[in-house]
Amino acid sequence: MTIVVPGGAAGQRLDRFLSATAPIRTRSQAKQLIDGGRVRVDGKVGRASHVVRVGERITIDIPAPEPLAVEPEDIPLRVRYEDDALLASDKPSGMVVHPAPGARRGTLVHALAHRLGALPGPGHPQRPGSVHRLDRGTSGVALVARTAAALEGLARQFRERTVEKSYLAVVRGAIAAGAGRTDRPIGRHPRERKRMSVHSRRGRTAVTRWQVVERLPGSTVVRLFPETGRTHQLRVHLAALGHPIVGDPVYGRPGRSVPAYARQALQAEKIRFPHPTTGKTLTIRAPVPPDIQHLIATLRQAGGTTAKSSGCA
Q1: Domain limits at 236?
Q2: What is the pTM of this model?
């Protein structure tokens, strides 16, 4: 495909410019194409750091998508919404979204391969159709595109931040304010490469809004509204605020005021976005799972309180 650089894009790096161009979805994918010699600017091999100018002709040799690199597995799915363009499932805690070291079988992608067959690229062959990923310990709505057009449309919406996401979490300690916002940049931890941190040397913009739902002994139930989608964003932001998510094995801390919990008490409860094909607004919800309901009920009992009309249990 060939693109002529428009006036509004002048001054951008080549990799950043391409990352906002369909069907390329991410800056890392753009850089991979550039490093592979598949991008030319006015006939010359491009460099990621090249600053684009108005009228330049950028030619991209997009390779055919790699075949699906997973074997289908007959794993039950809790489907919350499905049509010809997309599918939303209620992912249980403990299930990995796509194959990774230590999780080569039993992932959501394996289950989708059995239910749907082929899923669209481009992208990593073990992450087909994926536009919305959840951590292994997080439960709730996981969204997958079924067609290339839906994948492109949803990826654009996530980039442009028009997708509204809502999470429910139980965190340690009493949050003083009723609502708030944190915008500390997030990047790789300066020493521990498997962790993310607000103290990264190369942090990227990250914004999370939060609202208190219920105050319980030694803890607070909060609703979270991420405006960006950085790795581990909610877990890192809450830990940085001094209120890590109960049960978080990486960013949490033990405490006597809250009972032991087997995973991070975090639920992707709702996602709202325009349908990539019809434009109709979709709102997809996943109910609070029994284990989080039980945790909240236990904390209420410890404090001698009863359920409130908060929608969290």
Answers
A1: 164-272+288-303
A2: 0.77
